[in-house]
Amino acid sequence: MFNKLLIVGCGLIGSSILRASIKKKIAQKYFVYEKSIKNNSTIKKINSKVILLKKLDHNISDIDFIILSTPMSSYSRIITSLNKFLTNKAIITDVGSTKKNVLKLKKNELNKSLNWILSHPIAGSEVSGPEYGKANLFKNRWCIITKQKTDKKVEKVERFWKKIGCKVIFMSPDEHDKIFAITSHLPHLIAYNLIKTAQDFQHKERKNLIKFSAGGLRDFSRTAASNEIMWRDIFFNNKKNMLLGINMFLKNLNSFKKNIEKLEDIKLRKKLLNSKKIRKEIIKLKQDVSEPDFGRK
Amino acid sequence: MFNKLLIVGCGLIGSSILRASIKKKIAQKYFVYEKSIKNNSTIKKINSKVILLKKLDHNISDIDFIILSTPMSSYSRIITSLNKFLTNKAIITDVGSTKKNVLKLKKNELNKSLNWILSHPIAGSEVSGPEYGKANLFKNRWCIITKQKTDKKVEKVERFWKKIGCKVIFMSPDEHDKIFAITSHLPHLIAYNLIKTAQDFQHKERKNLIKFSAGGLRDFSRTAASNEIMWRDIFFNNKKNMLLGINMFLKNLNSFKKNIEKLEDIKLRKKLLNSKKIRKEIIKLKQDVSEPDFGRK
Q: In angstroms, what separates the C-alpha of A213 from chain B's closest C-alpha?
């Protein structure tokens, strides 16, 4: 598909793209720019063909496909190099978890001659680093591509994601950021907040909670162990939708609190029962397995 | 260990106790009292030895071990029958998820001559019903027994839980209810609240969220699919601790909201980073596996 593919930022996601691309023979040559020395030595072991770049300089002038998989807060600095050294033959894409901010960066900072097609593959884990990357990370996962006038370049990015396993869907940045605020960003913030609350409680009561965390807390602790830079970037960049989501959440929690305080049986049970519906739909749409979870072994 | 064992309420937990007890030869004879006709036909298939009772009447007078595994809101009604028909040779235990309320019931409603030792095995799933029960549900799970003067009967209950796989720990009802408010009850309420929020958003924005729920929401939907009667009972019976937990949670969420609103980078990152510590502890204490979760297949 491509001659020279460059991955900028090669952690969990970048190294998974690298592994999948090599496996699917996406390019002739594979380049990686990754600033962590420790990560570089891990990446070398993935495949001897991979060429590690020390800088984003004239070396990138004949790259034809670049994927940004750093935290979004590094995009601006990277764009400076792309503007200097890249040509209009290259296609740029990214994996950022919010899209309105990236579109804004593209419009305000990227040379008009360069081609950036915004993507967001919905894949990941609570762990970070190239040692955790997997070639099949994207298998059957959604990849959102920002809606725009379709041309050969957009089609090529679409084909790329499909080749490494994704189901592709087009969406406006606005719609993307609204939907993922609720399905991903708010759940992560809530998990962080629950863990913070458990820590405060543990500190205040001097009790060992962790020992008994299998009853629910455990599942949230996994989500709340995710990378802090990545999530800071997401929360800040999707601020407007996050605040809307937090406010809806607070309103509902205050209502649950009232139900419990006043022992409002019928109101409470109706809400608890209602939650089951969404679970059934999630399983129907193959976003989770129906097999019940009895705790991990 | 026992001659006649009776399980009152034979859903997920009751039928798992039944299966484990038969496997470990806990008793000579196994009795079940379960009010759902559908469940009774499932239970018959578990083992032909199981004797299904139609009523809690004179039939139970020579039972020597009774386990209550109905929702806690049924205990009071059951105690009336126990008072009428049970003798002091029997040991009663239960699996209720809160303990102060059960101790109060015992003190206020149970005949003084009868023996009730309060238990709480920390095991379960989001599914309900005897068809989901498993003999190894309790393997390596904590079982809390309410602290009291140790005698032969307490030791026997302890031996029982150990035989079917549990690690037993003694705790005061007060300590129990405080700890599980944070490790189990609050996480469940928060999961229900997040799903409610997603449903409200879906309704308001007429967007399909479910399709993209693998990014976080999915994990909460599992917890929020748990039995509504059981959880209503827990929230109401642990009201005081729930309200304390909700208030701590609200305070923290308002603080996170402020961090996002004002883009308070250092404060936010410090909190996100802090959450990782609890995760490491959870894994160290074998409450979860360290293997990262990349989404279920």
A: 5
